[in-house]
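Quick one:
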Amino acid sequence: MRDISYLDRYPLFRSQDREFARDRMMAIYGVDRFDIHDDEFGIAANLASLSATGLAFCAYDGAASVSFPESTIIRQFFSIRGTASYRTAASSHPIAAWSPIVSGRSRLDLKFPAGYRQLVLRVETAPLQGLLKAILGDGSDRDLVFEEDSPDPAVMAFVRQDVFKAADELQKFGQNYSPLAIAELERSLMTRLLLAHRHSFSDRLHIVPRRLNRSIVDLVESYIEAHWNEPLDMEKIARITSVSARSIFREFSETGRGSPGQFAKRVRLRRASELLGKPDARTSVVSVAFKCGFGNLGRFASDYRREMGELPSETLRKARQRLGHPAADRPDADSTRLS
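Output:
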């Protein structure tokens, strides 16, 4: 059961006791049926519950089947080893590298073979719908409804890569992972899902948004600079500017300013440089990276060097020398810990 595992920092349970496993699956995941089909049985379950999303790992040593009642949770399954299957009122599909997206609008039945391993991205419907409507500037009461068909494999390859990367980073940093980085990780994963799957708003996502007054870009940049240490909340920015998030992204692109996310990264890199340049006894490259919302520490080091012309450890070392502070970080801190 330990050969392949993810999210071990977030354990739920590990057991070979059938009744205990059934009780835990019902109490934690909300299943209303859990059947075991082999004499040999074992299960391991981990769950990283974030804000609007959750990332779950499950390993089955013994064939099993489970059922979920209707719910507000949307699920995307990713097989790590083996092929499972699922059935809803509308369709049935295998679960290989990924599944179609599975809404909670109907009962869900799953079958897992012995030795099966998977990651599952769980997303609450309401915040996903809220994000979509902010992107589109939609104020209607129309519901987000996904089609249970096969998603675009080219897009899903990137979704799978992002999901597994998120699992690796959550495992690596656990509770030390920056809340700011987690919030933006969630938003990125939810946006990926909206773009990868057909749904009731898909056609509108491909309509070219209207042009804006370019002062909107200045307003957005001012907001980002004032709220640099908060998650990049495009829903809130769309409300403040009274235009859709999609139109904002278009205007950033048309004016050669990249995207709101790229601008936020540049602002946070400058803030990181300021913090590293005025250290106290507890300042470290890692603590500054987390404070400024960088969850991927290797990427932080490379982005910082590209923007500032030197590694973050160099900025810190020079500042300590200038201020006469003793060196608290090893000279190669970011090359060994951040790259």
